[in-house]
Amino acid sequence: MILAKVNWTKIAINDLESVFNYIAEIEDRPETARLMIKKIIEGVDQIKSFPESGRQGRVKGTKELIIVTTPFIVVYRMKKDSLEILTVLHHARKWE
In sequence order, what are the beta bridge partners of 85? Predict the structure, then answer.
C-alpha cells in the first residue's frame, strides 16, 4: 500500500523546528541539525510506501517510526489514504 499524502500536524512541525533550533543554536552545530532533519523527513518518506512498518504506538491507534542512528521517534497514524504525522519526539520524552 502506497500512501501518496503525508499531513504534518502543527505540533509535529513545531517539533521539527525545535529539534533544528536546539542542535543548530544551543549545540552550535547547524550542519548536524540539517542532517538530522533530513533523516527524519527521509524516514517519513519511507513509511509512505510501508505504513505498517512502524511499531505499535504507546497511544492507541498510533504507530511509531524509530529514526535509525538518531534519538528521535516519529509518531503517526494511518488514515484511509494518508499518513498523519502527530509528533516528533526524543526517545527519552514521554508521549501519551
Answer: 8, 76
State in Å, rounded, how far the first CA of the chain is from the last one: 28
Q: In the chain, what are the domain boundaries? A: 5-90
96 grid coordinates: 501519551
Domain boundaries 5-90, CATH class:
alpha beta
Distance between CA 69 and CA 59 in Å, rounded?
24
With 90 as the cut, is the pLDDT of residue 94 above it? no
Place of cell 525545535: 18
pLDDT tens digits, 9-59 = 999 999 999 999 999 988 889 999 999 999 999 999 999 888 888 999 999
DSSP letter at 50 equals -
